[in-house]
Write a structure and sequence with these properties.
The protein is an all-beta fold. It is built from three helices and 55 strands.
Length: 1083
C-alpha cells in the first residue's frame, strides 16, 4: 500500500511486499499488473474500469443505421455496448440503409436487400415468371420456371408449352412435317397428311405387297398400311404375292401370274427316265409334281437302263460286269471274291493286317497265306533259321533267342559289378537280364562292392577283394585310437594306431591327457578349488572354478562393493573383498545403501537411485500443476528441493488442472468449462458464441430471430436460418424434395426434377412408347416428350425401331438388343426353296441345299437351279462319265446328252469309245473308210458354254477337220482323200514312190510277199522282213491268208474324252446353265 513501508531484514507480519502502488489493499485480486476483468473494478490499478478487451468482454459491432445489424469489419470487445458499437449481430452490407440487413425481404430494386451477396434474388417481391427456353424459340418448358426480376440466362420465355426445348423448330403452332418429331407440340408425331408423307398400300399379311386402291399418305409404314408396292392377289396369305415362288400341289396362284402349279413349280421333284423299271434312271429328267410315264425314278446313275439287274444299288459280283454302275468292274469285296494278302518281298507269305478280297490277284496282293513279320525282307518268314542279327528271322515273336547262330557266353551278374558267377552262364546274342558279365570269379554276387581287385573296407565283415581275408589292419576307413591307461577316454597324444576297432590299450579316440595315471584329470574335467590343474589347461584354481565365492570390488572399504564388478574366487583377492553389492559411489565411504539423504548436495546418499528424495533435509512445498499453467491444486503438494515434474506451482486455486487454459483470471470462452474458476460456465455472449435461431418444428432450420449462445437453449436450437414453414419439420432448406405438391427444400420450386418418389420418364421423340436410353429424367409426372417409363430405344427418331419391334434384315438393330439382323432368318426373309435363308450385311440371301444353286439371285424362287446328274461323278477326266460305244457301222451312230453347268466353275467330263469298223477292198478297188467323229453343242451356240475334245487320253488334243479346241463343235474324220499330202482313207490308197516313205494309211498283202521277205528281199519298200511281213500275214509259210491280195484301211478306233465348261461370264438364270451335247460317229 502506498505510504506504508518498513525497511526490514526479512518479511514481517503484513509487511511482505517489496512493491507498492496497490489501489485496493483489501482485495487480493486487485494490484498493478493484474488482468482486467468485466467486474466494474479497476483490477490493474491503471485508473480505468472495465476497459476494451477486458476478460469477459463481448464483441459489439458498429450499427450506424440502427437496424440491429452491424458492420462485420468494425467491432470492439466491450463489457457493455457503447455507441455506435451497440449490436452483437454483424453482416450488414449497407450500414447507411436501415432496410438493408441480413434477413430483410428482397425486393426487385437492384439492391441486395438481405445481404446474401445476390441482387434481386429469385422470388423477390414483384418478380415475374420466366420459363426455361433452351432453344431460344420463344416458348419455354411448362414445368421449369423461375420468378425473376428480369430474364436470366435460359429463363427468358414468357410463354410455356415447348415439348422439345433442344430444337428451336419445335414449338406450339409449328407446321407438322414427316421427321419423327411432334413439331407443333400437340402430342402427336407425324400424323397422316404431314408434309412429305408417302403413299402406303394395305398389306394385312405383311408380305411386302399391298392391295391396289387401298392407300394412305403417311410418314412411314403404320399398322397394316405398310407396303409401298401394290399387286397382291391374296392379302390374307403371306406366301402369295407377285414374284413369289410357285408352290407345287397347293392349288393356289402363289406368284399372282394367273397360273397354278405350272411345271418347274417350287417343291417339284426331279424324275429320271427309267426304261427297265429298277427305280434308277439315266441323266434325262423332268422336274414334276408327280411321276409321268417312264419319268418315274427319283434316283439317277443307271449305266445300263435295259438291264434291271444293273444299277447303282446293285451288288457287285465277280462276273466281268460293272453291276453297281461305279465305273469299276469286279472291284474289291465283290461277291465270290478271294482273300489275298499283301506280299511285298514275294516270299510266299503276306501281311496278316493287310489283305483284300479280290476276284483275282492284283499288284502285291498275291499271297494266300499270312504271317510274314517283315514284308520288306524275303529272308524273314515263318520257319526261317534264327540268327544273331536283331531280327525275328522265324517270325515266332522272339528276336535273337538263346542258342541262336553266332551267340557268345554271358555270366550271371546279379550285383552288376562286371564279374559273374563262374558256374552260371548262357550262350546269347547280347546281354539278357542278369546275364551280362563277360568274366567270372565273383565271390559274392549279391554285393557289387565285393569282387576281385576291390578295396578292402573296414568294419563290414566282408571279404571285399575276394582274397580270403576280412577287415585287415590299415583297411579303408580305419580310425586312429590313442593309448589310454587310466581309461578316462582321453589318451596320450603321441601314442596312436589306425584300426578298424579299439584294441587295448589303444581305446581312446581323443588325445590331450596331461596325467594318464589319474582318471580325474583330463581336458574334459571342470576346474575345482583343489590346488590341481584338473582340465589340463596349464592353470590351477583359476576364477570360476567349482566351489568359488562371489567377491565385489570395494575401493572405499565401506564393506559395500560395486554391483557390476565382481569375480567368483576361491579366496579374496586384491580389492575384490566385499561380499555385499549396491555401492553407487565407491570413491566415497559416506555414500552407500542405508546412508542419510541430504538436500542440495547433488548426491544419492542412500544409493536408492534418487538424488535429494522428497522430504530430504531443507525441502520446499510445491503444488501439483498438471496443466503447467502456474496454478496448482489445493491439497496436493510435495516438499522438494526444487520443482519436480508436475509439482512446480508455488500458488494453489486451479479448478481444472488438466486444462492449462482454465485458471483464475483466464478469459471465459465457449467450451463447456469454467475458464476463470469463478463458478460460472459459458454464460450468454461468451467469447466464441454462436447465433442460434428460433426453431419451433425442430428440423434444424429456424426463422430470423436468434441469440448468441455457446450451445442451443430451448427453441433457440437451429444454426441455420431460412425455414419457409416452421410448423412442418419436413420442410426446410436442403430437405429432400418429394413428390407431394410442397416446396420441401424452400427453393421456391415445387416437385422439381429428381424429387423423392419421382419416376424415370424417358424422352420419346418418335412416339413409339419407348424412350431413348440414357435420356431419362426423374419427374413427379410426365413432361413434354419425357412421357414414357420404358427405355431401351436405340433410335428415337424412327418409330419402327424399339425393343418390341420385330427384327428385319436391313442392317439395323430393329429390336435394340445390341445385335444387328439377329432375328429368325425365316421370319426376316421368308422360306427359301431348296435351301435356307440368311441375312448378311442387311440383305436377305440363300444358303442352298447340296446340289442346288441360286443362279438368278432372286430370293423369291430360292435355290432354283439343281446340278445335273453328272456332277456327282463326272467333274474330272479321271471320273469321266462313260457314255458307252459309238460305231461307224451301217449309217453310223449318235448319242445326245442334256446337262447343266452350275455353278459357273463346274465342268462335265464324258468318255466315248468310237469304233472304226473294217473297211476292205482289193488291189484294184481299195477300201473306203467312212470313219468320222463329230462332237457339238446344239444349245447354247453363242459360245458361253464350250467344249474340249481329247483323242485317246486326257491330254492329247484332237486334230480337227473343222471347229477348234475351245469351240461349240469339233470334228475329226478320214472319209476324204488327199493323195497329194497322203491324207484321208476314202479310198485307202497312197502313192509310194521311193523306199523309206512314210507309211500309208492302209496295208496290202500280195501273193508271195512273205516268201520274198523271208529271203531278206522286199523289193517294194526296201524294209526288213519284220516290218514287211507284220500284221495280217505274220507267218512262216507261203501267204495263204484269206486276206491276201486285199487292201485294208487303218483302224482309228479309240476313246475320246469330252470336257464341257463355261467359257466366260456368269449365268443370270438357270436356263443359261443348260446345254445339249450331240456326239456322232460315221454320219
Amino acid at each position: 500500500r502506498p505510504g506504508q513501508t518498513k525497511c526490514l531484514c526479512a518479511p514481517s507480519g503484513a509487511y511482505t511486499s517489496t512493491q507498492g502502488s496497490d489501489c485496493d489493499d483489501n482485495d487480493g485480486t486487485i494490484y498493478p499488473g493484474a488482468q482486467e476483468r468485466c467486474n466494474s473494478k479497476d483490477d490493474d490499478c491503471d485508473g480505468h474500469i472495465d476497459p476494451e478487451n477486458s476478460v469477459g468482454c463481448t464483441l459489439w459491432y458498429m450499427d450506424s443505421d440502427n437496424d440491429g445489424f452491424g458492420t462485420s469489419t468494425s467491432s470492439k470487445c466491450l463489457c457493455s455496448p457503447s455507441s455506435p458499437y451497440t449490436t452483437s449481430k454483424s453482416g450488414d452490407c449497407n450500414d447507411s440503409l436501415p432496410t438493408v440487413f441480413p434477413g430483410a425481404p428482397e425486393v426487385c430494386n437492384n439492391i441486395d436487400d438481405n445481404c446474401n451477396g445476390v441482387v434481386d434474388d429469385e422470388g423477390a417481391q414483384n418478380c415475374i415468371t420466366y420459363y426455361y427456353d433452351h432453344d431460344g424459340d420463344g416458348y419455354g418448358v411448362a414445368s421449369n420456371w423461375k420468378c425473376y426480376c428480369a430474364p436470366t440466362g435460359k429463363y427468358s420465355a414468357l410463354q410455356a408449352g415447348d415439348c422439345n426445348d433442344s430444337d428451336y423448330s419445335v414449338y406450339p403452332g409449328q407446321i407438322e412435317t414427316c421427321n419423327g418429331r411432334d413439331d407443333n407440340c400437340d402430342g402427336i408425331t407425324d400424323p397422316p397428311g404431314s408434309s412429305g408423307c408417302q403413299t402406303y398400300y394395305l398389306d394385312v399379311d405383311g408380305d411386302g405387297f399391298g392391295v391396289s386402291g387401298n392407300t394412305r399418305c403417311q410418314c412411314g409404314p403404320s399398322g397394316d398400311y405398310k407396303a409401298s408396292t401394290p399387286g397382291d392377289c391374296n392379302d390374307g396369305d403371306r406366301s402369295t404375292y407377285p414374284g413369289a415362288p410357285e408352290l407345287c400341289g397347293d392349288g393356289r396362284d402363289n406368284n399372282c401370274d394367273g397360273r397354278t402349279d405350272e411345271e418347274g413349280c417350287s417343291g417339284c421333284t426331279n424324275y429320271y427316265r427309267d426304261e427297265d423299271g429298277d427305280s434308277y434312271g439315266i441323266e434325262d429328267f423332268k422336274c414334276l409334281s408327280a411321276p409321268q410315264g417312264t419319268y418315274r425314278a427319283t434316283r439317277k446313275g443307271d449305266c445300263n437302263d435295259s438291264d434291271s439287274q444293273i444299277n447303282p444299288g446293285a451288288q457287285e459280283v465277280c462276273d466281268g460286269k460293272d453291276n453297281n454302275c461305279n465305273n469299276s468292274v469286279d472291284e474289291e469285296n465283290a461277291q465270290g471274291c478271294i482273300t489275298y494278302y499283301y506280299d511285298f518281298d514275294v516270299d510266299g507269305y503276306g501281311v496278316a493286317a493287310n489283305s483284300k478280297c479280290l476276284c483275282s490277284m492284283s499288284g502285291k496282293y498275291t499271297a494266300t497265306v499270312a504271317g510274314d513279320c517283315n514284308d520288306n525282307d524275303s529272308s524273314i518268314k515263318p520257319g526261317a533259321t534264327e540268327v544273331c542279327n536283331s531280327k525275328d528271322d522265324d517270325c515266332d515273336g522272339q528276336t535273337d533267342e538263346e542258342g541262336a547262330l553266332n551267340c557268345t557266353w554271358k555270366y550271371l551278374d546279379n550285383d552288376g559289378d562286371g564279374y559273374g558267377v563262374t558256374s552260371d552262364r548262357k550262350c546269347l546274342c547280347a546281354a539278357v537280364g542278369k546275364y551280362t558279365a563277360d568274366i567270372g570269379g565273383d565271390c559274392n554276387d549279391s554285393n557289387p562292392d565285393a569282387r576281385p581287385g576291390a578295396t578292402e573296407v573296414c568294419g563290414n565283415g566282408v571279404d571285399d577283394n575276394c582274397d580270403g581275408r576280412t577287415d585287415e589292419e590299415g583297411c579303408g576307413g580305419c580310425t586312429n585310437y590313442y593309448r589310454d591307461d587310466d581309461q578316462d577316454t582321453y589318451g596320450v597324444t603321441n601314442d596312436k594306431r589306425c584300426l578298424s576297432g579299439p584294441q587295448s590299450p589303444y581305446t581312446a579316440t581323443r588325445g590331450g591327457d596331461c596325467n594318464d595315471s589319474d582318471a580325474t584329470v583330463n581336458p574334459g574335467v571342470i576346474e575345482a578349488c583343489n590346488n590341481k590343474d584338473d582340465n589340463c589347461n596349464g592353470a590351477t584354481d583359476e576364477p570360476g572354478s567349482t566351489g568359488c565365492s562371489t567377491f565385489y570390488l570395494d575401493k572405499d572399504t565401506d564393506t559395500y562393493g560395486v554391483s557390476s564388478d565382481s569375480q567368483c574366487l576361491c579366496a579374496p583377492t586384491g580389492q575384490y573383498t566385499a561380499t555385499r553389492a549396491g555401492d553407487c559411489d565407491d570413491n566415497d565411504a559416506l555414500v552407500h545403501p542405508g546412508a542419510v539423504e541430504r538436500c542440495n548436495n547433488n548426491k544419492d546418499d542412500d544409493c536408492d537411485g534418487v538424488i535429494d528424495n522428497e522430504g530430504c533435509q531443507g525441502c520446499i512445498t510445491y503444488y501439483y500443476d498438471g496443466d503447467s499453467d502456474g496454478y496448482g491444486v489445493n491439497g496436493n503438494s510435495k516438499c522438494l528441493t526444487s520443482p519436480s515434474g508436475k509439482y512446480s506451482a508455488l500458488v494453489a486455486g486451479d479448478c481444472n488442472d488438466s486444462d492449462p487454459l482454465v485458471k483464475p483470471g483466464a478469459t471465459e470462452i465457449c467450451n463447456s468449462k469454467d475458464d476463470n474458476c469463478d463458478g460460472l460456465t459459458d454464460p450468454e455472449n461468451t467469447q466464441g458464441c454462436t447465433q442460434w435461431y428460433y426453431d419451433v418444428d425442430g428440423d434444424g432450420w429456424g426463422v430470423m430471430q436468434s441469440k448468441c449462445l455457446c450451445a442451443p437453449s430451448g427453441l433457440y436450437r437451429a444454426q441455420n436460418a431460412g425455414d419457409c414453414n416452421d410448423t412442418n419439420a419436413q420442410v426446410y432448406p436442403g430437405a429432400p424434395e418429394t413428390c407431394n405438391s410442397l416446396d420441401d427444400d424452400c427453393d421456391m420450386q415445387v416437385d422439381e426434377e429428381g424429387a423423392q418418389g419421382c419416376t424415370n420418364y424417358y424422352l420419346d421423340g418418335d412416339n413409339d412408347r419407348y424412350g431413348r436410353t440414357g435420356s431419362q429424367r426423374c419427374l413427379c409426372q410426365p413432361q413434354g416428350l419425357y412421357s414414357v417409363v420404358v427405355g431401351g430405344d436405340c433410335d428415337d427418331s424412327n418409330p419402327a425401331i424399339n425393343p418390341a419391334a420385330a427384327e428385319r434384315c436391313n442392317g439395323v438393330d430393329d429390336n435394340c438388343n445390341g445385335v444387328v439382323d439377329d432375328g429368325d432368318p425365316v421370319a426376316m426373309c421368308g422360306n427359301v426353296q431348296n435351301g435356307r435363308p440368311v441375312c448378311t450385311n442387311g440383305v436377305c440371301g440363300a444358303v442352298c441345299d447340296g446340289g442346288y444353286y441360286d443362279v438368278n439371285h432372286n430370293l423369291m424362287d430360292g435355290c432354283e437351279c439343281q446340278q445335273d446328274q453328272y456332277d456327282t461323278s463326272g467333274n474330272t477326266c479321271a471320273q469321266a462319265v462313260d457314255l458307252g460305244t459309238l460305231s461307224d457301222a451301217g449309217s453310223g451312230s449318235t448319242r445326245s446328252i442334256s446337262g447343266r453347268i452350275v455353278p459357273d466353275s463346274d465342268q462335265d467330263w464324258y468318255k466315248v469309245r468310237v469304233v472304226d469298223t473294217q473297211d476292205t477292198g482289193d488291189l484294184s478297188n481299195p477300201g473306203r473308210d467312212r470313219f468320222n467323229v463329230r462332237v457339238r453343242l446344239t444349245n447354247p451356240v453363242d459360245g458361253s458354254i464350250r467344249l474340249n475334245v481329247y483323242w485317246g487320253s486326257c491330254s492329247t488334243q484332237i486334230t480337227c477337220l473343222s471347229g477348234s479346241f475351245n469351240s461349240v463343235e469339233t470334228q475329226w474324220a478320214v472319209n476324204f482323200s488327199d493323195q497329194t499330202n497322203n491324207l484321208g482313207e476314202n479310198p485307202c490308197i497312197g502313192p509310194v514312190t521311193s523306199p523309206g516313205q512314210a507309211p500309208i494309211l492302209w496295208y496290202c498283202c500280195k501273193s508271195g510277199e512273205c516268201d520274198e521277205c523271208r529271203n531278206n528281199n522286199c523289193p517294194d519298200y526296201g524294209k526288213q522282213p519284220a516290218e514287211c511281213c507284220g500284221g495280217k500275214n505274220n507267218n512262216n509259210v507261203d501267204c495263204t491268208s484269206p486276206e491276201k491280195d486285199l487292201r485294208h484301211c487303218a483302224d482309228e478306233t479309240t476313246t475320246i474324252y469330252i470336257r464341257v465348261f463355261r467359257n466366260s461370264g456368269q449365268a443370270s438364270n438357270c436356263g443359261q446353265t443348260d446345254y445339249a451335247l450331240d456326239i456322232g460317229v460315221g454320219l
